[in-house]
Every structure is written in C-alpha cells, then in structure tokens.
Amino acid sequence: MATRVIPPRILKTFRQKTITTKPLNSAHPTLSATVAPFNFAEKPKPTFQKPTTNDYDSLLNFNDVEKLFSFVPTTRLFLSSAILHASAVESMVDFGMWVMKSKLMEVEPFKGLILTAIKHTFYQHFCAGEDTTTACRTVQLLNDAGLRGMLVYAVEDATDNKGCDRNLQCFLDTIEASRSARPSSVSFNIVKITAICPLRILERVSDLLRWQQKDHSFNLPWKQNSLPIFSDSSPLYHTRKRPEPLTVEEDRDLELGHERLQKLCQKSVEANIPLLVDAEYTSVQPAIDYMTYSSAILHNKDDNPIVYGTLQTYLKDAKERLLLITKAAEKMGIPMGFKLVRGAYMSSETKIANSLGYASPIHNTIEDTHACFNDCTSFMLEKIANGSGGVVLATHNVQSGKLAAAKAYDLGIEKVNHKLEFAQLLGMSEALSFGLSNAGFQVSKYMPFGPVEIVIPYLLRRAEENRGLLSAAKSDRQLMRKELSRRLKGGII
C-alpha cells in the first residue's frame, strides 16, 4: 500500500505534545519546534495510554464538541446540520425523489433550477465535486482536518461495452489524479464492477456460478482461478433452472470485463493505492466476487493487498464466507483485504426473495446484523494483528466503532496502521469520523464525485437506501447543534 504520511492536523498535535515532552535520557537532545523527519523504521512508544477494560467508552470522546468539530468551518457546520435535519424528514426525502424522477427534469427552465438547487445543497454535502480536480481539492481539505478520502466516480450500472469503456477511462483518470494528490491523502480508489462489465453479463455469470455450486460437475470453461464465492448457507434461489452456457459474444464480453478490471488493478499497483471493489445486489454479487478474487490472486503480493473486496454483513452467510475465503487465500499465500459494511439493499433483497418464495438472505433482526458485523470485525483485526491482510471498517454505528477501537487496543495494533482503516460516507457520521481520528486512527470518507446529472442516480439510490440511517442519525445532529450553539453564544463565526 501507499507510504503513510501522518495528516497535518495529527502531525501538528503530535508536535505540540512532543515539544513539551521530557527527553527519555540525556543522549537524546531536547525537541524543539523544528521536528526532524519521522523514521518509520523505528517504532517509538505511543503517546497514548492503553485504557482499562472499563474505560473503553473514553476511546471516542463525543463530549468535547469544540474539539470534535474544531476543523469544520461554522458555515459548513450550519449547512451540514440543516441538510441532515432535512434528510431525516421522510416526507421531504420522498418529495425530493419524486421531483428528480418526474418529467419536470425534462423541461427547461425547471430542470436547470432543480439541478442548481441540488448542486448547492445535497450534492455539495454528499459529493466531492464534478471532476477529479475538484474532488482532489476536497480530499486535501479533509486531509488538513486529519481525514483521508476514498474516491469513487459515481456512475451507475453500464448496459453495453461502449458505456463500460467510457466508465473505465473515468476510473483510470481517478487513479491518476490520486497519484498527484498529497501522499496518503487518498486511501483507496473505488470501482463498481457493474460500471465496467455489462449488467446482463454479470447476471448470466452469477447464474452459472450458482448452478455450479448446486452441481459441482457443471463445467465452466471460462472460469479462472478464484477463491470461494459461496458457503453452504448462501442464497441460490435466483437461479431456478440450469442456465445455458455463455454464447461466443457473452464470453467475449466477460473477457472484456476482466481486461478492464486488470487495467485498473495494474494502474493501482503503479500508483501504490489500493483498489476497492464495491458490493452490489445478491443477483450479481457472485460474478463480482469471482472477478474480484481472481484479480486479488494476480495482484495481491507480499502481504500487500492491492485489491480489496466488500462483504455485506447483513447477509446471513457473510461470516461463513469470510472464513472460507481467508482460509483458502492463506493456503495460497494470498493476502486479502476486505471492506466490511452492514449493507444497503435490505428492502429490495427481501422483496425479491419473498417473490420467489424464499426467506430473506438478510439477518432476521438488526441485532443479528450488528453481531455479524462485530464478529467479522474482530476476526479481521486478529488477522491483522498476526500480520495478515487488511480491513476497512465502514460503519456509521458508534457502538461498533467503540468495539473495534477497543479490540485494536487489546491486540496491540498501532493506531496509524496501514492495514486498518475506518470509513464513513462523506457528509454523514461526522462525529464518529472525527472521534476516531482524534483517537489517532486512520479514517476515510467515501467520496463520490462526477457531473451533477450523472450523480443524480447515485443520490437517488443513496436517499432510498439510507433513509433509515439518515433519520436515525439523531446524535450526530444533536452534537452539531450543540457546537453551533456554543459558537453563536461565544460570538465565533
């Protein structure tokens, strides 16, 4: 992975602390305001003290709102608070979605007015900019505040090879822009396989892979070396009958999808910035996992995962699959990296399963989902502590953040550790992001970007998927209000 450079805010804090620190012995000169470059070959003792078991809640301090939001300008804080409050009103979200899907978007001047309103509100809050230049500027602003960026060109599914080639170039441009950004400010570049391989091909390949899981004698001549895609409990109901083999044209389209992904992987290797593959619906996820794992086998070397997959822990089979994948990868000597998320397609997944007469693949209760996420987190942190793999803990859940931070302390995992990254969506869970960063952990924001018209489908999907999350983010809104009140009372603008 890329060489880690401590963000300016954390570096400044470190300098302030070390300036007043007594030297360990007379052989070490007193530190002055000018600090020598860090020697990452050495491992100086951390400045923090490991908390006791009963003190884990203090790892993430949400009480000091002044410190929590110290690098957020008042205007930005006010706008963020207003948008999050608006997003928590479901009727307002429904109205906004109706407007963006309506025929008003086909009529001028209404279309222009709507796009302008979106651009200066929700788009500005949840997106990083219209192109790589503005996105990288947003990354730099975040990095000044101690956070990092995970860049994703926010395009939706592609239906043909022409669209896939166009999207590929945008993803390649993103990686190139990341190379020129401040070192280590971009933690990952994101790719959606559905944007570089036609959706119909991913559906066909997923059908064939599922059938092979049912019938191990089923031959797939195009299949490359990969890792386990299914477990015994994985849902196979999407494929009701034996699928036909790929046609010559479909075989070629699949090969082109592989070639596009390999170009991105090779570009990521050259940039030394990991490529993270996003997860999608279970109808196409088998094909996405297959392509991800076959690429990981080719490019993940020397305990350096350059290709990361994504596991959605709201799926009942997530933990079992994680165990199977890591076991197979270790046997092959392949370091694996994963992003762990709860998941974002709960309604659609349950609806499809019910329509086919099957139980939902999603955990029956939110408590089961929390337990699965936390168990998978614990498992991956133990792997990291033993020097294997990497993990991105993508969560907006404060309790999961506290548990993960506590586990990292218990295992002796260094805070600024290139194998452990926390992540939240841009514009959401600011308190958790800054709380983890203030505790010394590496934290990234998932940062979609692109022209407003192209990003609208992304915003619509996020609004639909995250309506529960947005309405539940009460504590974040309360903390923002508390800090705004403090600033206004103190005359701080």
From TrEMBL:
GO terms for molecular function: FAD binding; proline dehydrogenase activity. Its EC number is 1.5.5.2. Its cofactor is FAD. Residues 172-471 form the Proline dehydrogenase domain. InterPro entries: FAD-linked_oxidoreductase-like, Proline_DH_dom, Proline_oxidase. Keywords: FAD, Flavoprotein, Oxidoreductase, Proline metabolism. Gene3D superfamilies: 3.20.20.220. The keyword Flavoprotein applies. It catalyses: L-proline + a quinone = (S)-1-pyrroline-5-carboxylate + a quinol + H(+). GO terms for cellular component: mitochondrion. One of its GO terms (biological process) is L-proline catabolic process to L-glutamate. The keyword Protein transport does not apply. Belongs to the proline oxidase family. Converts proline to delta-1-pyrroline-5-carboxylate. This is Proline dehydrogenase. It comes from Quillaja saponaria (Soap bark tree).
